[in-house]
Model the fold of this input.
Amino acid sequence: MTANVAMQTGMDIVVAVNKVEAEKLRAKMLEDLALQSILNALMDRMVESFTQRIEVANAIIENMAVVAENQMQAGKYITRKMQHVAG
Done:
């Protein structure tokens, strides 16, 4: 075996090791990308769920305000009628 062949073989081994390491890093990056995609989907669902809950809470508060207003109007009506009858 000549020195050139030995050197070339050594370089081929170094290149092969570097390729393996590069593929490991690439696989890790693809895994991280997939996990990031999953996390993004979960965050989107959480935001959507939170938004829906806020909308429901706002609707309940609006309904409570309408009921309170109706009760107040009914109370005023009854008071006026009682004053009219008493008066």
